[in-house]
Amino acid sequence: MRAPKATKEHNVILSVTSKTVTLDLEIVEPPSLSIYPSPLPFAVQGQTLTAQCEASGFAPLSLELSWEFKGINGQSRPLGSGSVTGHRQAWDGTYSQSSRLELDTTKLDLGRGGEVTCVAVHLGGTRQASVTLNVIGFSTPSIEDSMAMVGVALVLYGLIKFVSWTFTSSGSDVAGQQEKKDK
Description:
The protein has 2 domains: 32-136, Immunoglobulins (Immunoglobulin-like); 141-169. It is built from 1 helix and 12 strands. It has one helix at 143-182; strands spanning 9-16, 19-26, 32-36, 43-44, 48-58, 63-71, 76-80, 83-84, 88-89, 95-104, 113-122, 125-136. It comes from Eleginops maclovinus (Patagonian blennie). This is Ig-like domain-containing protein.
């Protein structure tokens, strides 16, 4: 018996003594996933970023691509399928397909950022690829931001009190010297 070639679908003919049997063999190959750009650039509040997920090397053709977002708080939510391209077939019989996602930091309420994940559901199994999204210039302060603001306020208050005390003390000395001269 000859070994089948490296294509993904085979028509195997097996001859045993004087009988011939034809078998249809279908190979299932799960996709490999990658996200571009990786890592994602920092996003400013109100900015739109584009991410692309590329699924390649899979067979048979049926594939479902979707996106998810997991915030810093740990909660996940679906972002939809994005703009999915038509499939492309490679020389070895495998397929590739991609999905492009527009991340509008204002409309999607992404907070301070989190993890953006591309999910590929295929007969060969579910695959995931993730990248980190960082949103800067977020509108509400975090606990750390609030504590820093309180610290700065206390330092400024102390500085103002010190300067006020210094001028008040030196002003009373000048007034006292003026009274001594007048006498």
